[in-house]
Design a protein that fits this description.
The complex is a heterodimer. By secondary structure, chain A is mostly beta strands. Chain A has helices at 6-24, 56-59; strands spanning 32-41, 50-51, 62-63, 80-83, 98-104, 107-109, 112-116, 119-123, 131-135, 143-147, 153-157, 161-167, 174-180, 185-187, 193-199, 202-210, 214-222, 228-235. In chain A, a hairpin with a 2-residue loop joins strand 5 and strand 6. Chain A is globular, with a radius of gyration of 19 Å. By secondary structure, chain B is α+β, with helices and mostly antiparallel strands. In chain B, the strands form 2 sheets. Chain B has a 5-stranded mixed sheet with strand order 2-4-5-7-6. In chain B, strands 1-3 form a two-stranded antiparallel sheet. In chain B, helix 3 (23-89) runs antiparallel to helix 4 (92-115). Chain B starts with a helix and ends in an 8-residue tail after the last strand. Classes of the chains: A mainly beta, B alpha+beta. The A-B interface holds A 54-58, 128-130, 132, 144-149, 151, 168-169 and B 92, 95-96, 99-100, 102-104, 106-107, 110-111, 114, 128, 132, 135-136, 138-139, 142-143, 146.
């Protein structure tokens, strides 16, 4: 199998946006947009650093858990938002079919990636030590691969699913691969903001998932003119 | 002292003395010098300690690195062991053990690289390069095992892992050897540094002691020498040899002190000379005064003698006239004649007293020492004055102790003294009594005249024996007398080697007494 470098992956992604995304979301036509923010309801939990005892030279002496990253305004990072039942007629901006997830200083970077069903992920290793990719998904085949520095391991995901990826050698490492069923998937930035575009006006149900807070649902009505603003509160638990 | 100045230390002692600085500053400088030396010692020893500590630290680090190198060797062996085990067991657990060991190897190597001295970096880089290959091989073996490709895993082990590990092993071996060599050289260098510091410290200690001794000696002697000089100089002054001067090399407080002393000595000399001149002048004046006084006394003595001759003639002819040897004296002339006689006698007594006093003052009165009887003197005085006592209606008794042997002295003068005292007593007593008594007490005769007269005021008692003194001028007018009696009596008693005194209470009476030796040698007061 041919490996994909991060640069090539990025190029591919850009091409996908250029070819598919633009015509699919004609501005001001029958396409609505949801501009939303996912915020934490309740107090921001205290961050407890994880002590690192092995491979300190590469990994450092402690790590932030990063399983719930909240901005000062309460925005939740890396929450995944998607339409529970996408409109049959519309096609949103297609997600890039190949993306990459690096391992740097013993953390997955980014922590969360979204690929369309049938898409591929290039797993990279920038650390000068061995990592061991390990995942046991239910819909997709499991994988358990030892990875030296500089070697890319590409894995295809055929079925929609949220998959946890770990490293057998570094217990604190967590990565998430979201295999999207349809194009209307988004994930929040550092401020908790997301955007879903190319939606026909109508009533929808949003599903919101966060690795620590679980899944919640939210109904939303989308018009054709103005972007629909949504603020989703996820209760801490 | 001279020996010191002649010695090689004399020059520095003088040099320190000449420094134009206060004693305080000199002492402070001395202490500061020694303190600085101590600070230098401390600095040097600190530097040595730091250097030794640094080298020891390097040694420790080298030791740790050797340990790490050994760990690497161990990790290598363990990887081989776990790989074989994984091949046999074909289990995930044994695979993860290989991976764990490989990462441990990596971590140790990384630590080794950061602390390695520059000369070992290349070696470690080579090991890390080999390790990168080993890492890929281990990953391949692990993945092959998981994929049940045992043959591939075996091939990878034999053809790739083993040669790489041998290479790494030999490189690590060189590293250990290099570290051990380094440790050996560090040990040698530490030992050398310790030896060096020991000799440095010893040298410094000796230098400090020497400098402290010399500085202490020189500074202290620069103070002691002037002090000794001052001592000698002040001894001269104390002995009365003024005008000397002292020279010290010091330009400090001692130098100033020496200047003051020289000035003081000059002043003392000047005062002493002035005083000598004044004393000489006074002595001359005194001699002249004495001469004048004697001339006066001689003049008075001669004069008195010359005056007595015509007065005796007057008194003699008056007496003859009153005895009517020139015929009957008419009654109207008798009274003036008696007046002439009385006043003439008074004048004669005055002249006699003046004559006596003059003789005494001129040193021309000599005692006629011979045996005399005290009893006889007392009797004569009593008899002579009895009529006066009867006339004034006073009780008048005179007694001498019966055990008094014949005495030696000028009986006539003793009698004159007693007569003066008794006469005075009768003169100044208006009622009551006058008593004379004489006692012998241990070779001394005490003549005493007690009265119940007017007494003498306390403030006058001191002056009563001075010439021409009576208690006040009214007394002279009321009682008459020359005022010379007591003065003469005092001089006469003193000529006998005795003394005179008085006890008196104003209005109640007086007691005069004089004491003379039973055997006066006479003429030698």
């Amino acid at each position: 199998m041919r490996t994909l470098t991060p640069w090539r992956a990025l190029l591919l992604g850009l091409c996908a946006i250029a070819l598919v995304g633009t015509p699919a979301a004609p501005r001001g036509a029958a396409a609505g947009t949801i501009k939303g923010t996912v915020v934490l309801k309740g107090a921001t939990p205290e961050i407890k650093k994880l002590a690192v005892t092995i491979d300190q030279y590469v990994c450092g002496k402690e790590k932030n858990p990063e399983d719930l990253v909240v901005s000062p305004q309460g925005g939740i990072r890396s929450a995944v938002v998607w339409l529970d039942k996408p409109p049959a007629a519309a096609s949103g901006e297609a997600l890039p079919s190949t993306t990459s997830m690096d391992q740097k200083e013993c953390m997955f970077a980014p922590r969360l990636v979204v690929v369309p069903a049938g898409g591929k992920i290039d797993f990279l290793n920038s650390d000068r030590l061995l990592h061991n990719l390990h995942a046991t998904p239910t819909a997709n085949p499991p994988f358990n691969r030892t990875q030296p520095k500089g070697r890319t391991i590409t894995i295809s995901f055929s079925h929609p699913e949220i998959i946890r990826v770990t490293c057998d050698l570094h217990s604190w490492m967590r990565g998430w691969v979201v295999v999207a069923e349809h194009p209307f998937y988004a994930f929040t930035n550092g401020a908790g903001e997301f955007e879903l575009r190319g939606l026909p006006a109508g009533r929808y149900t949003l599903k919101i998932w966060q690795e620590r807070l679980g899944t919640i649902a939210r109904d939303v009505v989308v018009g054709d003119q103005e972007p629909t603003a949504v603020t989703v509160e996820m209760p801490a638990r | 002292m001279m020996a010191l100045l002649a010695s090689p230390l004399g020059a520095p002692v003088r040099a320190v003395a000449r420094i134009r600085a206060s004693v305080h500053v000199k002492l402070l400088a001395g202490f500061l010098l020694i303190t600085l030396l101590f600070i230098a010692i401390t600095a040097v020893s600190l530097r040595t300690v730091t250097e030794t500590a640094r080298q020891t630290n390097l040694l420790d680090q080298a030791h740790v690195r050797v340990g790490w190198s050994r760990l690497i060797e161990h990790a290598l062996a363990m990887q081989m062991h776990f790989t074989s085990m994984a091949l046999l067991a074909q289990s995930e657990d044994s695979v993860s053990l290989i991976l764990r060991e490989n990462n441990r190897f990596n971590d140790t190597l990384a630590r080794l690289e950061t602390t390695a001295p520059p000369e070992e970096r290349a070696l470690i880089q080579a090991i890390r390069g080999a390790q990168d290959d080993a890492m890929a091989t281990v990953a391949d073996i692990a993945n092959a095992l998981r994929d049940r490709r045992t043959a591939d895993a075996m091939t990878a082990l034999r053809t790739r892992q083993e040669p790489i590990y041998q290479k790494i092993e030999s490189l690590v071996g060189s590293l250990v050897a290099a570290e051990e060599k380094r440790m050996a050289s560090l040990r040698t260098s530490i030992e050398a540094a310790q030896g060096r510091s020991l000799s440095q410290m010893a040298g410094f200690a000796v230098a400090v002691v020497a400098v402290a001794l010399i500085a202490g000696f020189v500074i202290s002697w620069s103070f002691i020498l002037p002090v000794r000089g001052f001592h000698g100089f002040l001894s001269q002054v104390a002995e009365g040899r003024f005008g000397g001067s002292i020279a010290v090399p010091n330009r400090d407080e001692f130098g100033e002190l020496a200047e003051r002393m020289n000035w003081m000595s000059g002043e003392l000399r000047r005062l002493d000379d002035e005083q000598r001149v004044a004393a000489a002048t006074l002595r001359g004046l005194n001699d002249r005064l004495e001469l004048a006084s004697r001339a006066k006394s001689e003049f008075l003595a001669n004069m008195s003698h010359e005056l007595r001759t015509p007065l005796n003639a007057i008194l003699g002819f008056t007496e003859i006239m009153l005895d009517e040897l020139y015929g009957e004296v008419p009654p109207n002339l008798r009274e003036p004649l008696v007046d002439i006689q009385t006043n003439g006698r008074h004048l004669l007594r005055l002249i006699n007293d003046v004559l006596d006093l003059s003789k005494i003052e001129a040193g021309r009165l000599e005692l006629g020492v011979e045996e005399y009887s005290v009893q006889e003197i007392v009797d004569v005085v009593h008899t002579s004055l009895k009529s006066l006592a009867i006339e004034k209606g006073l009780a008048f008794n005179a007694s001498a102790a019966p055990d008094i042997p014949p005495a030696r002295g000028d009986g006539r003068r003793i009698m004159q003294c007693l007569m003066n005292l008794a006469g005075n007593a009768l003169k100044f007593t208006h009622h009551g009594r006058v008593e004379i008594d004489v006692r012998l007490d241990g070779g001394w005769l005490t003549y005493r005249v007690s009265d119940t007269g007017i007494g003498i005021p306390k403030e006058e008692v001191e002056n009563i024996f001075a010439e021409f003194r009576q208690v006040d001028t009214t007394i002279t007018r009321e009682y008459g007398g020359t005022g010379l009696g007591l003065s003469i009596t005092k001089r006469l008693v003193e000529l006998h080697g005795g003394r005179i005194g008085v006890e008196s209470e104003l209005g109640k009476g007086s007691r005069f007494f004089f004491t003379v030796p039973l055997h006066a040698d006479g003429g030698h007061p």
